[in-house]
Design goal:
This protein is mostly helical and 196 residues long. Helices cover 49% and strands 0% of the residues. Helix 1 runs antiparallel to helix 9.
Length: 196
């Protein structure tokens, strides 16, 4: 029953995503810091040849690079609270010189590890013993109130940060898919935990 509830919640669409920024907003608030002047070799906004060269491999590849970071560009453009969809929108805006419609789905949301690998390698540092109020891996009752906003709500908290947990758990290069896999793993583990 609990696992089916978790699965249903992971499919639910939450209003938490309604506040996503447009490509123009992301570019104006974040990307212009480097892309307006070409700082550190960033392609300038409006430089057709530079963007044409970079877009030859497709928008998904450009988005993957923006999410993970490339050259001197930090992961998520130095703003780990931006979602992969917002990054896709910024890429579309810059490549099309402001003419593309914002995509409704991210061009790319790569994975670097499984949910289990991320949890065991990183998340367990806080979620293992409940550091700073983090819900413990083996305590579904601590996760249950957090599930009121659905899995999308939990994912949004992981992306933007929540209380003592920084955005993307302090790992800016993690994609939304990486975070979703880790969050889902933790919730399922807590729901199916049996004391030894």
């Amino acid at each position: 029953m609990v696992v089916s509830t978790v699965a249903a919640l992971s499919l639910a669409v939450s209003s938490a995503w309604a506040a996503e920024k447009t490509g123009r907003e992301v570019v104006e608030q974040t990307c212009v810091a480097c892309h307006a002047s070409g700082k550190d070799g960033a392609p300038k906004i409006g430089d057709v040849p530079a963007w044409t060269q970079r877009s030859k491999l497709g928008l998904a590849k450009l988005t993957e690079s923006a999410i993970a970071g490339i050259g001197k560009m930090p992961a998520h453009g130095g703003q780990p609270n931006l979602s992969d969809l917002e990054m896709s929108r910024a890429i579309a805006f810059m490549v099309s010189f402001g003419k593309a419609v914002d995509p409704s789905k991210p061009y790319a949301t790569p994975t670097s590890s499984t949910g289990e690998q991320l949890v065991q390698g990183h998340c367990v540092a806080c979620h293992g013993d409940g550091k700073d109020g983090a819900p413990r891996l083996n305590d579904f009752s601590a996760w249950k109130p957090r599930l009121q906003k659905g899995m999308d709500g939990l994912l949004r908290s992981a992306i933007t940060g929540h209380k003592a947990m920084p955005a993307r758990s302090g790992m800016a290069n993690l994609s939304d898919t990486d975070l979703k896999n880790a969050v889902t793993y933790m919730v399922v583990q807590s729901a199916t935990y049996k004391a030894k």
